[in-house]
Amino acid sequence: DSVKARKWNFPVFLFVRRTGVEAVFVRMEDKELVKVEDGGSESVEAAVESSYVGEAVKLPPPVDEALLAEMIEMGFPKNRAMRGLFYGGSTLEAAITWIGEHDQESDINDPLPADAVAKPRKERTAEEKAAKAEELKQRIAENRRVQAENEKAAEKTREKERIQRGKQMAETRRVVEEQERQRAIDLRRKDKEDEARERERLRQLLREDRIRRFGVEKANELEKRSKEAAARKKVEMDLQKQKQAKEKAMPEVSGQGETIDLEKALKEMSAAVLKLDGSPADVRKTCYGTMLKYITNIINQPREVKFRKIRLENAAFQKRVIAADGGLDYLRAVGFREDIEEGFLVLAHSDMLLLNRVRGDLELYSSKT
């Protein structure tokens, strides 16, 4: 329980049992409970009255709690801040100024005495006040700068520690993963060794069975054939794996999955050939030969991207194909398109039947020219 002493207006805390009040405490300005009387009093009033006798409890002189909290937040020790507020004046500036003037005193950090008396201060001139105010601003700025630097250094230290912990965790994770990989490798190796031993055991059993049934010579011949068949099968499997890996590594060409209207393509190619017939023989022959090379490369290496694309601004392409009236029309009829990749003619299908037909036609046109 707690009550306010009516005469002295300070917090009083009582330790009460059924037999009466056994102890009386008061709360001092520094927030500590101070025992002032071992009771035996039969009532709260009697305990309070008996506890506050003469100088039994001496509270420190009061200071502005808000200013005290602000000074503590600025970094001043509590006792130093209380002395500055009590002796220096009731403003923040006056308190800090007083602390600066008495900073070297040995009792600057001692608790404020209960019987402390503030000495009257000499009134300063306007110039002195202005100088002190400027000095105060500089001290506050310096104090805040130091605090900011300390906080920055502390944050930098914390960041270094965080990075170090992250590195340690990453290294630990790497070691664990490496150990897991090694265990998996060892397990696979052991499994393979076990499988090899089992195969050898079965092979021995099979050989013994063949010898028992066919004799040693026939058993040796059967074993030789079996080994040759296994070797051939292994070679075929290796070749198949290599082929699959090569095909998987080859990139897909945009648009090569499209279908083409064969009848329409043949009509457009015939129309382009009629245009080409109007060009000079040497120009026409060069055009047919160049397009034949394009189509042959695609047929021989259908998944090679560079053979399925023709740069429109290529000088050789301009001179050998574009220069012949109908050359570009013929490639468009074959299936090359300009809207798949900017600046390029790209073959938009993989119809090998059409491409082989085109190659045959181009070989014929080129030989007749």
Description:
It contains eleven helices and seven strands. By secondary structure, it is of the alpha+beta class. The strands form two sheets. It has a four-stranded antiparallel beta sheet, covered by helices on one side. A three-stranded antiparallel beta sheet has the order 5-7-6. The model is unreliable at 1-10, 12-22, 26-44, 51-57 and 250-255 (pLDDT under 50).
Short description:
With 369 residues, the chain is α+β, with helices and mostly antiparallel strands.
Please state the oligomeric state of the protein chains shown.
Answer: single chain
**β-sheet strand percentage:** 5-15%
Note poorly predicted spans.
1-10, 12-22, 26-44, 51-57, 250-255
Helical element count? Answer: 11
Q: Which shape, going by the Cα principal axes?
A: elongated
Q: Work out the radius of gyration.
A: 51 Å
Strand count, sense and closure of the main sheet? 4 strands, antiparallel
Strand order of the largest sheet: 1-2-3-4
Topology as H/E string? EEEEHHHHHHHHEHHEEH
Number of strands: 7
Q: What structural category characterises the helix and strand content?
A: alpha+beta
Mean pLDDT: 78
Query: What percent of the residues sit in helical stretches (DSSP H or I)?
Result: 55-70%
What is the end-to-end distance? 121 Å
Summarize the SSE layout with pairings:
Blueprint: E1 2-4, E2 11-17, E3 20-27, E4 33-41, H1 44-51, H2 65-74, H3 78-88, H4 92-101, H5 126-214, H6 216-249, H7 262-276, H8 281-300, E5 309-311, H9 315-322, H10 327-334, E6 336-337, E7 344-347, H11 352-368
Antiparallel strand pairs: 1-2, 2-3, 3-4, 5-7, 6-7
